[in-house]
Request: fold
Amino acid sequence: MPYPEMMIAPMREDLVRVGFTEMKTPAEVDAALANETRTALVVVNSVCGCAAAMMRPAVYLSLQGQKKPEVLTTVFAGQDMEATDRTRDYITGYPPSSPSVALFKDGELAYFMERHQIEGRHPEDIAADLKAAYEEHC
Reply:
Protein backbone atom coordinates (compact mmCIF):
# COMPACT_ATOMS: atom_id res chain seq x y z
CA MET A 1 0.00 0.00 0.00
CA PRO A 2 1.43 3.38 -0.97
CA TYR A 3 2.45 5.94 1.62
CA PRO A 4 0.32 9.08 1.94
CA GLU A 5 1.37 11.59 -0.71
CA MET A 6 2.03 14.31 1.88
CA MET A 7 4.67 12.04 3.42
CA ILE A 8 6.56 11.38 0.23
CA ALA A 9 6.14 14.79 -1.44
CA PRO A 10 9.46 16.06 -0.02
CA MET A 11 11.21 12.92 -1.33
CA ARG A 12 9.81 13.58 -4.80
CA GLU A 13 10.78 17.25 -4.54
CA ASP A 14 14.44 16.35 -3.80
CA LEU A 15 14.79 15.36 -7.46
CA VAL A 16 12.22 17.62 -9.11
CA ARG A 17 13.82 20.76 -7.72
CA VAL A 18 17.13 19.86 -9.39
CA GLY A 19 15.58 19.35 -12.80
CA PHE A 20 14.04 15.87 -12.89
CA THR A 21 10.70 15.20 -14.53
CA GLU A 22 8.48 12.71 -12.74
CA MET A 23 6.91 9.81 -14.59
CA LYS A 24 3.73 8.78 -12.76
CA THR A 25 2.00 6.68 -15.42
CA PRO A 26 3.10 4.04 -17.94
CA ALA A 27 2.19 6.49 -20.73
CA GLU A 28 4.54 9.10 -19.25
CA VAL A 29 7.32 6.49 -19.08
CA ASP A 30 6.83 5.55 -22.73
CA ALA A 31 6.66 9.21 -23.76
CA ALA A 32 9.95 9.86 -21.99
CA LEU A 33 11.87 6.74 -22.99
CA ALA A 34 10.40 4.93 -26.00
CA ASN A 35 11.89 7.12 -28.73
CA GLU A 36 14.53 9.02 -26.78
CA THR A 37 17.92 9.12 -28.52
CA ARG A 38 19.62 11.55 -26.14
CA THR A 39 21.25 10.33 -22.95
CA ALA A 40 18.59 9.85 -20.29
CA LEU A 41 18.97 9.28 -16.57
CA VAL A 42 16.16 7.46 -14.80
CA VAL A 43 16.22 7.50 -11.01
CA VAL A 44 14.03 4.89 -9.35
CA ASN A 45 13.25 6.77 -6.15
CA SER A 46 12.21 5.13 -2.89
CA VAL A 47 11.17 5.92 0.69
CA CYS A 48 14.02 3.88 2.15
CA GLY A 49 16.80 5.42 4.16
CA CYS A 50 19.47 4.64 1.58
CA ALA A 51 17.54 6.68 -1.00
CA ALA A 52 17.37 9.66 1.33
CA ALA A 53 20.84 9.52 2.83
CA MET A 54 22.82 8.16 -0.12
CA MET A 55 21.12 7.94 -3.50
CA ARG A 56 19.35 11.31 -3.88
CA PRO A 57 22.34 13.33 -2.58
CA ALA A 58 24.66 11.29 -4.83
CA VAL A 59 22.55 11.91 -7.91
CA TYR A 60 22.59 15.64 -7.19
CA LEU A 61 26.37 15.62 -6.72
CA SER A 62 26.89 13.58 -9.88
CA LEU A 63 25.20 16.25 -11.98
CA GLN A 64 27.65 18.98 -10.97
CA GLY A 65 30.25 18.02 -13.58
CA GLN A 66 30.63 18.98 -17.23
CA LYS A 67 29.36 15.71 -18.67
CA LYS A 68 25.88 14.70 -17.64
CA PRO A 69 22.74 13.16 -19.13
CA GLU A 70 20.57 15.38 -21.30
CA VAL A 71 17.24 14.07 -19.97
CA LEU A 72 16.55 13.66 -16.24
CA THR A 73 13.56 11.56 -15.21
CA THR A 74 12.38 9.79 -12.10
CA VAL A 75 9.80 7.26 -11.04
CA PHE A 76 8.79 6.48 -7.45
CA ALA A 77 8.85 2.79 -6.52
CA GLY A 78 6.10 1.74 -4.15
CA GLN A 79 4.04 4.82 -5.04
CA ASP A 80 3.59 4.99 -8.79
CA MET A 81 3.55 1.23 -9.22
CA GLU A 82 2.39 0.95 -12.82
CA ALA A 83 4.89 3.59 -13.95
CA THR A 84 7.65 1.83 -12.02
CA ASP A 85 6.75 -1.51 -13.59
CA ARG A 86 6.81 0.07 -17.05
CA THR A 87 10.20 1.67 -16.32
CA ARG A 88 11.54 -1.71 -15.30
CA ASP A 89 10.51 -3.05 -18.72
CA TYR A 90 13.20 -0.73 -20.14
CA ILE A 91 15.82 -1.85 -17.58
CA THR A 92 16.60 -5.20 -19.11
CA GLY A 93 18.89 -7.81 -17.62
CA TYR A 94 18.45 -6.76 -13.99
CA PRO A 95 15.98 -7.70 -11.27
CA PRO A 96 13.78 -4.94 -9.83
CA SER A 97 15.84 -2.69 -7.58
CA SER A 98 14.96 0.42 -5.65
CA PRO A 99 16.48 2.77 -5.25
CA SER A 100 18.45 2.50 -8.45
CA VAL A 101 19.81 4.64 -11.26
CA ALA A 102 19.66 3.81 -14.97
CA LEU A 103 21.47 5.60 -17.77
CA PHE A 104 20.17 5.19 -21.31
CA LYS A 105 21.99 6.12 -24.51
CA ASP A 106 20.40 5.90 -27.95
CA GLY A 107 17.40 4.20 -26.35
CA GLU A 108 19.46 1.40 -24.83
CA LEU A 109 20.43 0.77 -21.22
CA ALA A 110 24.09 1.82 -20.99
CA TYR A 111 24.64 1.72 -17.21
CA PHE A 112 22.67 0.55 -14.19
CA MET A 113 23.38 1.09 -10.51
CA GLU A 114 21.48 -1.32 -8.29
CA ARG A 115 20.47 -0.91 -4.67
CA HIS A 116 23.37 -3.05 -3.44
CA GLN A 117 25.76 -0.55 -5.10
CA ILE A 118 24.10 2.27 -3.13
CA GLU A 119 23.49 0.84 0.34
CA GLY A 120 26.12 1.64 2.94
CA ARG A 121 28.19 3.89 0.67
CA HIS A 122 28.93 7.59 0.92
CA PRO A 123 27.09 9.88 -1.54
CA GLU A 124 30.43 11.17 -2.84
CA ASP A 125 31.54 7.64 -3.76
CA ILE A 126 28.23 6.86 -5.48
CA ALA A 127 28.43 10.19 -7.33
CA ALA A 128 31.94 9.32 -8.52
CA ASP A 129 30.64 6.06 -10.03
CA LEU A 130 27.80 7.92 -11.74
CA LYS A 131 30.18 10.58 -13.06
CA ALA A 132 32.39 7.84 -14.51
CA ALA A 133 29.34 6.45 -16.32
CA TYR A 134 28.51 9.95 -17.64
CA GLU A 135 32.10 10.38 -18.85
CA GLU A 136 31.85 7.12 -20.75
CA HIS A 137 28.35 7.48 -22.18
CA CYS A 138 27.38 11.18 -22.28
